[in-house]
Design goal:
Mannosyltransferase involved in glycosylphosphatidylinositol-anchor biosynthesis. Transfers the first alpha-1,4-mannose to GlcN-acyl-PI during GPI precursor assembly. Required for cell wall integrity. Pathway: Glycolipid biosynthesis; glycosylphosphatidylinositol-anchor biosynthesis. Belongs to the PIGM family. This protein is mainly α. It has 23 helices and four strands.
């Protein structure tokens, strides 16, 4: 009789071998491992060659934009950062291109100021990193390509996920969830369990292909990286942070978090998830604390919301952030704080983007200068840089709406609520019902999923949303896919979710092309496309959360069933 469920419990200790089996290493395992490494190398080399080809193609398009309808391949952000690098290494006091920090005045050194370049809103570390582009434009972008490729091996090195990896036939899945229950003996019976080596191999293959298809060979990632967008750098910092946490290297993880927030502000959203992860009891102890330790508080590895691990992590991360930014402020002074951090707190971008706030901000942007006018452009008139104002009634109401839209709290409060809820709630969703010590990196925490939901929610609800922002949550997707069981998320459902999201984005891009390159005033159509993408993104995110919840239920049911069967065997 065919098994109804094939599962591998990732909480089990994989290193322990059965006394009835030889402990010599299986040669076939070595050959399989060698083949896997070789295949990974092949895919990384293939991705590198594709991106080199794209860089050469980009150089051709940029030199002959008239042949491609005025389009250029290189991202404008790359041009801005490259100009910033030129300014740093070519100071000119007469033109005002000089670092204004007290340290430069004290030491008598002259370094250029990248903030002299209009729209430069990055950390000065970025132009310093891509400075090889000053020797040749392709060198800096090749560095970004290598940084992007380094993320794949890190994702593959993540420890085994916490959730049970379960295979279930579609018919059985429907029956189980239709009935709402399943026999505990059926879940954990030996006849329905997949032997660990085969389950490990199946999960390994799932992780392997999800990493390479969603990141290494993803056309979207290849395009964004070769256009010169530096998002792969912050993605690398976040993944290194995640790997360090999952492997129990908490001090290193704290340093990486401080560096990541110094690079971009948004990784600060992971604090709730990390805090909940560190507060989980029993995730670091190798043995139970003695009664004396419990009485004196000597069990420093014990969790707790204000435990030693939380304080240590927060202190190291805060000191790292303070030291890095203190040095940068001492060199570049107040412009560094204004453009790198303060600007983003009150940023108002009226240019078209995916955000649902785009059109209201667009209207309010010009209303502030024309209090008695409205700027709702006709849909079939040529687009101009400054829309022609038309008379408007109810200016008081319009001013009130404009102030609400332009207030940073309008978009920040929904973001903050979702980040806190997903960080504290989802990370704790798989917390074990026991405080028994567990292996480092295995526990019942699902830090990856919490961080993914936090990032996706932050991007979707942000007041400014561009294609580059989608790269922030993409590398967090492969680690969670193997934890979402086919019991709740079939291949067909995955195809529908991905297809809907891609189609919604394509619709927006088509209307944005008409606005930007064809000069048509289709602002409302662009906004409608953005609202559609917003709705689809929320739907996809909700489906993933539901699938995650189903995987958690399956995991807990399997644990209960294993306990019941264990007691039954002892009684018999």
């Amino acid at each position: 009789m065919a098994p109804s469920s094939l599962s591998y419990n990732a909480d089990a200790n994989d290193d322990k071998t059965s006394p009835n089996k030889p402990q010599d290493r299986d040669p076939s395992t070595s050959r399989s491992s060698s083949k896997r490494k070789l295949t990974t190398t092949h895919l990384l080399v293939l991705s590198f060659l594709i991106q080199v080809g794209l860089l050469l193609y980009a150089n051709h398009i940029d030199n002959h934009p008239e042949r491609y309808g005025g389009l250029k391949y290189t991202d404008v952000d790359w041009i801005v950062v490259s100009d910033g690098a030129k300014l740093i290494f070519n100071p000119d006091e007469e033109d005002g291109n000089i670092a204004r920090g007290w340290l430069m005045r004290y030491l008598g050194l002259k370094i250029g100021d990248p903030y002299e370049r209009a729209t430069f809103r990055y950390t000065p570390l970025l132009p310093l990193l891509i400075s090889p582009s000053l020797f040749h434009p392709l060198l800096g972008r090749l560095l970004l390509v290598l940084i992007s490729l380094s993320i794949s091996p890190l994702l593959l090195s993540l420890p085994t996920s916490d959730l049970t990896f379960t295979f279930t036939s579609a018919q059985t899945s429907s029956a189980v969830y239709a009935s709402g229950s399943r026999s505990l003996s059926t879940i954990a019976s030996p006849s329905s369990s997949l032997p660990q080596p085969f389950a490990q191999r199946a999960r390994s293959q799932c992780s392997f292909w999800s990493v390479h298809l969603l990141w290494t060979l993803n056309p979207f990632v290849l395009n964004i990286t070769t256009r010169g967008s530096p998002e792969s750098i912050i993605c690398l910092l976040v993944i290194v942070l995640l790997v360090a946490l999952r492997k129990g290297r908490e001090i290193q993880a704290a340093i990486w978090l401080g560096l990541a927030v110094s690079w971009k502000i948004y990784p600060a959203i992971y604090v709730p998830a990390i805090w909940s992860f560190l507060a989980r009891p029993g995730s670091r102890r190798e043995s139970k604390p003695t009664s004396a330790q419990q009485y004196s508080g000597g069990d420093r590895d014990h969790g707790g919301w204000l435990g030693w691990r939380v304080w240590r992590f927060g202190t190291v991360a805060g000191v790292t952030f303070g030291v890095v930014n203190g040095i940068l402020w001492a060199i570049w002074g107040q412009p560094f704080l204004e453009h790198t951090y303060l600007y983003h707190l009150t940023r108002q971008d009226h240019r078209h983007n995916f955000s649902p706030y785009f059109y209201p901000i667009y209207l309010s942007f010009y209303n502030s200068a024309n209090h008695n006018t409205s700027i709702i452009p006709a849909l079939n008139t040529p687009s101009t840089s400054t829309p022609t104002p038309t008379p408007m009634t109810g200016s008081v109401v319009s001013d009130l709406i404009s102030r609400i839209v332009r207030n940073p709290l309008t978009s920040f409060l929904p973001q903050l609520s979702l980040v806190l809820l997903s960080g504290f709630g989802l990370e704790s969703a798989t917390r074990p019902a026991t405080t028994e010590p567990t292996e480092i990196g295995k526990g019942s925490s699902n830090l990856e999923f919490a961080m993914f939901v936090q990032t996706a929610a932050f991007v979707v609800f942000n007041k400014v949303c561009t294609s580059q922002y989608f790269m922030w949550f993409l590398p967090l997707l492969p680690p969670i896919l193997s934890s979402l069981t086919s019991l709740s998320l079939s291949r067909r459902k995955i195809a529908i979710l991905v297809g809907s999201w891609v189609i919604a984005q394509a619709v927006w891009l088509a209307t944005a092309y008409q606005l930007e390159l064809m000069g048509r005033s289709v602002y409302l159509a662009v906004w409608a496309g953005g609202l559609s993408l917003f709705g689809v993104s929320i739907w996809v995110l909700g489906e993933l959360i539901d699938a995650f919840g189903a995987a958690v239920v399956e995991q807990r049911s399997a644990r209960v069933a294993n306990g019941v069967n264990g007691v039954r065997e002892k009684v018999e």
